[in-house]
């Protein structure tokens, strides 16, 4: 094999790429509905007409739920709550039917997430007392507030690592509890206040925070390192989320500085893609969940007629984007080839 062919081959082998998705927007329900959660099968939980919830399967069929569904896993377990007698009471349903969940007396209980093992997490509020994060694994486990006044839980992974926030008299701070229930408050010189909203099975935590200058952004906390993702957040509904799946793909609802529109952004491998939205004069779109296949659920709202619609963003196709290191490797191979060819002409 000739040396120049070897060098060129090395350069081409080093040419690597990652997939940058091209997303398609798909409504999954009628008007006045919100997309809440999606599992890895593409089954989704939505709320409709301001009352009740539905389970929308990947094939488009629907099943009505008799409670407010808030989370779903790939086993078909749906967790949520009902409101009655001035209390929120937990409800859970599997593919085979309802699951009995014992709710403590005189407590408001909400659920925000469920993992693949059927363990769910949320916040409980004893009457006349403060909020406390919990998870439910064949019984309630109240998570340690470690001297703070109260806490919230927003997500849980398969190891029962739970993320949310703690608060004192002044502020709310992003936090997580490890599998042993040990509390870690995410502190950085950039954080004024904030909360953690999502965690994947590698323990990567994402959330949102206020800087001390009053601006807002999203963050990634992984292996003890805090990273400001520099997304210009904007008010979108009552709860702005940062999302992450097990592949490390992230979705943040933020202000599009080019258009002034609030919409979700997909971010992975150094590439950021603005997700498509409906053409509203006044409105916004919000992402509420992402599964491990890259499907994103949320809703899009038109302020002119207040008409929210549950939607899914599907990664319809992928466009190869060369890694920066690939350019360098290919350049080395081509450069070496040019040098050899020049030497051969001289001799």
Helix/strand layout:
Elements: H1 3-13, E1 17-31, E2 33-38, E3 44-48, E4 53-56, E5 62-65, E6 68-72, E7 78-84, E8 87-94, E9 97-99, E10 107-114, E11 120-126, E12 132-136, E13 140-142, E14 150-156, E15 162-167, E16 172-177, E17 183-185, E18 193-199, E19 205-210, E20 216-222, E21 225-228, E22 242-244, E23 250-255, E24 262-268, E25 271-274, E26 283-290, E27 296-302, E28 309-322, H2 324-346
Antiparallel strand pairs: 1-28, 2-3, 3-4, 4-5, 6-7, 7-8, 8-9, 10-11, 11-12, 12-13, 14-15, 15-16, 16-17, 18-19, 19-20, 20-21, 22-23, 23-24, 24-25, 26-27, 27-28
How much of the sequence is in beta strands? over 45%
What is the CATH top level name of the domain at 66-230?
Mainly Beta
Our measurement of the CA-to-CA distance between the termini, rounded to an integer number of angstroms, reads: 20 Å
The biggest sheet amounts to: 4 strands, antiparallel
Helical content stands at under 10%
Mean pLDDT: 80
Give me the strand/helix succession.
HEEEEEEEEEEEEEEEEEEEEEEEEEEEEH
> What is the strand arrangement across the widest sheet?
1-28-27-26
CATH architecture of the domain at 66-230: 7 Propeller
Decide which structural class fits the backbone: mainly beta
How would you sum up the global shape? globular
Quaternary structure type: single chain
Number of helices: 2
At CATH level 3, the topology of the domain at 66-230 is Methylamine Dehydrogenase, Chain H
Rg of Cα set: 23 Å
Low-confidence stretches: 1-17, 318-347
Question: Quick one: CATH superfamily of the domain at 66-230?
Answer: Peptidase/esterase 'gauge' domain
Report the count of strand segments. Answer: 28
């Amino acid at each position: 094999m000739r040396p120049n062919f070897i060098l060129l081959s090395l350069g081409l082998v080093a040419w690597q790429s990652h997939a940058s998705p091209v997303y398609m927007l798909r409504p999954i329900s009628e008007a006045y509905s919100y997309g809440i959660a999606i599992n890895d099968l593409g089954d989704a939980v939505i709320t409709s007409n301001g009352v009740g919830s539905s389970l929308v399967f990947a094939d488009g069929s629907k099943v009505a739920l008799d409670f407010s569904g808030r989370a779903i896993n790939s086993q078909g377990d749906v967790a949520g709550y009902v409101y009655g007698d001035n209390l929120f009471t937990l409800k859970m349903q599997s593919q085979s039917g309802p699951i009995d969940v014992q709710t403590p007396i005189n407590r408001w209980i909400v659920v925000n997430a469920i993992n693949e093992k059927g363990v769910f997490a949320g916040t409980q509020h004893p009457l006349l007392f403060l909020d406390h994060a919990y998870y439910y694994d064949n019984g309630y486990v109240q998570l340690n507030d470690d001297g703070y006044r109260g806490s919230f839980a927003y997500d849980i992974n398969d190891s029962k690592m739970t993320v949310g926030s703690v608060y004192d008299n002044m502020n709310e701070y992003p936090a997580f509890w490890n599998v042993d229930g040990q509390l870690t408050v995410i502190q950085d010189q950039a954080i004024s206040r904030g909360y953690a909203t999502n965690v994947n099975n590698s323990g990567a935590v994402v959330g949102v925070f206020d800087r001390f200058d009053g601006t807002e952004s999203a963050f990634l906390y992984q292996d003890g390192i805090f990273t400001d993702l520099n997304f210009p957040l904007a008010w979108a509904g009552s709860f702005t989320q940062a999302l992450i799946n097990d592949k490390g793909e992230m979705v943040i609802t933020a202000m599009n500085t080019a258009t002034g529109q609030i919409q979700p952004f997909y971010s992975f491998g150094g590439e950021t893609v603005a997700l498509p939205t409906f053409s509203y004069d006044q409105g916004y779109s919000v992402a509420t969940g992402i599964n491990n296949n890259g499907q994103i659920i949320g809703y899009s709202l038109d302020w002119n007629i207040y008409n929210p619609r549950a939607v899914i963003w599907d990664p319809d196709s992928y466009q190869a984007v060369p890694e920066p290191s690939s350019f360098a490797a290919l350049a080395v191979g081509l450069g070496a080839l040019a040098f050899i060819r020049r030497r051969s002409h001289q001799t």
